[in-house]
Amino acid sequence: MDVFFAILQVATLVLILALLYRPLGDYMARIYTSRKDLRVERGFYRVIGVDSSVEQTWKSYLRGVLAFSVVGVLLVYLLQRIQTVLPYSLGLPAVPEGLSFNTAASFVTNTNWQSYSPDVTMGYTVQMAGLAVQNFVSAAVGITIAVALIRGFTKRESSTIGNFWVDLTRGIVRLLLPLAVGGALVLIVSGVIQNFNGFTEITTLSGGLQNVPGGPVASQEVIKNLGTNGGGFFNANASHPFENPNAWTSLVQNVLMLMIPFALPRTFGRMVGNHKQGYAILAVMASIYIASFTALTLLELNGAGTAPELAGGAMEGKEQRFGIFASTLFTSTSTLTSTGAVNSMHDSNTALGGMMPMLNMMLGEVAPGGVGSGLYGMLVLAIIAVFVGGLLVGRTPEYLGKKIGPKEIKLASLYILVVPTIVLMGTALSFAIPAVRADVESTSIWNPGIHGLSEVLYAFTSAANNNGSAFAGLTANTPWLNTALGVAMLLGRFIPIVLVLALAGSLASQDKVPATAGTLPTHRPQFVGLLIGVTLIITALTYFPVLALGPLAEGLQ
Hints:
The chain is an all-alpha fold. The protein has 19 helices and four strands. The strands form two sheets. It has a two-stranded antiparallel sheet. It has a two-stranded antiparallel ribbon with strand order 3-4. It is globular, with a radius of gyration of 23 Å.
């Protein structure tokens, strides 16, 4: 019966995503290609002094992204530091400096890593005016970067790639806000709470007293998933019954996490004028997603040991109301996107099962990845695959009519090297510096030895890839980890954005070259297979040594 309901849930998810693929993908393409502004958008442009008809060079576009993000970090930091004087603070104290920096960096970079218990740390004003706002704008920023890269392929001998402020505004007003309002209503009807009740004192079954927090949860829950953010209103995230009351809401949250990333290949295909190209990218994303979900589910169903065998699988850290299938589905979705939300504890997975969400992030979260970031990450990998394919068969390295020359390859190569460098350096420094290692091992790691290494590796993988999930056995609210992980989030977000926008500018400046007999077809199954191979091989060669020291070593014990 459990297998039947699992298959039904997966089939329902696939059906919903299939039904959304065309209309949502086409709608997003219209948003970013329309020449008409809505009245509310025109009003906003007048306030900030932007001419929506003027496009920007990639450097101007980048300056807009960075300036907007710096202001976001400062505002979120300030709100946390002055929490005591804000309305609806619930009597909570100001957030300490190190944690405020970490949280500000986390939410502005679409990571939503939380080194704290949200329901007893943040009042309603900080949650709504700071964190929830960043859930919208950081997601919109990711989509703008993907759209700018697509324009790089579509433009001919152009010095511009669009207008950041226009793309940002349209993404929020026309896409994220309407979907969030509708999604919040669905969650409220399904049992997710939405109130301003503060803390309510109740009497427990044992006769004791307990303060139960309330709050505007549904409105934040929907955008945390829709924007692939992931930061929960409660410490238990989506395993908390106020955030995720039942199996139906768990399925809805899976849909919310996947609907935009899986529809963006359709947007890509429509904007470049070739839907087959979009289907090829979709096929790569879907193939990796299915393989990862299947592997994680089998590892958890076949967990070794007496307890897993008696329970019919590795049930530690999982709830009876979800079980293994719904838990592994949610885990695969949240780590293959950049969401990082959890409805079970990743640290409680089997050793090899815990490696799977780590691998999902190490892939670059491109299957389907975060809103926008998944698509532009996959397109960078596609450029690498075109170059490799051209070398293998002696064909001209071209992608969508644009030549892939030394400049493009250098930018793409740097892109795939940046995040692994941050992950491995952060993990290494945590153990290589004597004072830091002593602090990490004594105050942060609950499970010393091999699993302790996995916990720290998972933390830096999550931070640099802007995911936000964690192995729960790591206490990260320390001076070193707050600072190091905050820096990893910022570098892991914005260095790739710089490289992608530079790549978009380089492509846009080229004229299109006609396809010839020597052009490598990039819409056929052979290229899909090549792109999957390139994605997996790059990850395997980069991370295998450290995985062999951590989860692989633990799993083979």
